[in-house]
Amino acid sequence: MTVLVKANTKTTVKVVGDSLVATRFKLCEWGKDRLPENEAPKIVIVEIEAWGDFGIPISKIRQWRDDGVQCVALMSPLSEDVTKAKNIFDDVFALPVNALELQSFLHTESQKYELKNASETTFVMREMVNSPYYGTSPQAQKVIEYARIAAGNDHCILIQGETGTGKGMLANWMHQHSKRKNKPFMEINCATLKGSLLRSELYGHVRGAFTSALEDKIGIVERADGGTLFLDEIGDMDLEAQTQFLKTLEDKTFRRIGETKTRKSDFRIICATNRSLSDEVRRGNFRSDLFFRIHVFPINLPTLRDRRSELPAIVEHLALCLNQTNLKFEDGAIEILSQHQWPGNFRELRNVIERAMMFAQGGGIQLSHISFDSASQAGDEVARNNSKETNYLGLSDSTSISFSEPLNGNSTNHSVTNFNSRLNEMNADANEQNLTLEYAEFRHIMMVMKRFNDDKEAACKALGISLASLYRRLSKFRETSAGIEMLTV
Prior knowledge:
Elements lengths: L1 E5 L3 H10 L6 E4 L13 E5 L10 H9 L3 E6 L6 H7 L2 E4 L4 H23 L16 H14 L5 E4 L6 H10 L8 E5 L5 H9 E2 L11 E2 L1 H4 L4 E5 L6 H13 L1 E2 L8 E2 L3 E6 L3 H7 L4 H7 L2 E4 L10 H11 L11 H7 L5 H16 L13 H14 L14 E2 L10 E2 H12 L9 H15 L4 H8 L3 H12 L2 H7 L2
Helix pairs in contact: 1-4, 5-6, 17-18, 17-19
């Protein structure tokens, strides 16, 4: 990589040369040294004494900039031509040159190019096959095939998958491989904003539209004109915003908050959610007409726990993302990763690998270098419990939890085992039952009690309620018809 310098003094050349120490850049002086064959400079530094006397044709500088070359001017800060220089050069540094400032700039640029080269050569994304890397399983290949189809058209795309499965990355990839790739990719997370705040971000507002609207603001719908609008977690959008966005989606028109003028925006829409939108429609939380409008081309992303056989290849890919080209795992390390449930999917895996690499300090990753956070371990426990045969209340046939404390002042000693037979009978028609909130609450309490081996104080601590509240909730359930039927011996 070459830094091309056009300087008027040897001092400037020396300062630039000294600043390149410990970088991968090589110094090349304009008019004296030849650039390597078939190689353009990465950075061009021009010392300017008089405006127009650059020593390099201005057309050449503009061509370099168009090709992505970083062009820098060195000139007096008192010059009246500094503003003109900023229109031609990417950066302007003051003369005399501040060696530390220039050194910091060149070192930063060197690191940028190293990272870029690493991503271009080892991060195949895997770009060698012109597709994002999701693996080689049939599930993954289906995702890649669908992504390629989606990138080639302007229809609505709905990406569905758990948190951490790469919905945002896939949306960005489809934009970058579409005919709109040179236009903006605008993203908003609908779960982070509600009501008027969400609508203001989407459509913008005019000054004075509300108390804090001190100036006009352009919304992301308007900014996405010609490009792609990505609505992440659209399942969390409130109903009022859904109604307004449906009209925007239908005719590509909108109004900024506080104005009557109708504006247009030619955007392509990609949505993502970790919810089942069809279930949300049935619950009344999501408009059915909006659902059918965005559910044109759904892409379902598989979870990491469903792709354990691909874990070594996925880990290798993540290592390349972290600029580690020769990551080695000691005995047992990959096995422990394969046993984990990965509730956080790829995002969690990246964190675990990155943390292990820090502990390894350049060496092989050992079993002791791998650790999971408490929330993730809780996910493992839940997954293990869910893998056991359970009835429709979430209790296994071997569950035995007794209540020897007073309920409403009456001493009882009910064993869950005593009514498990009743639960088994009810399992046959469980799908026909209208499960109430009391059922769901009782089920959760039973699962927590089971986990803590009937230790009520520990269960209450985990549930975040007092002991009295536990007895009150159980007593309330006991008074229902279902409770009477299930708890009566």
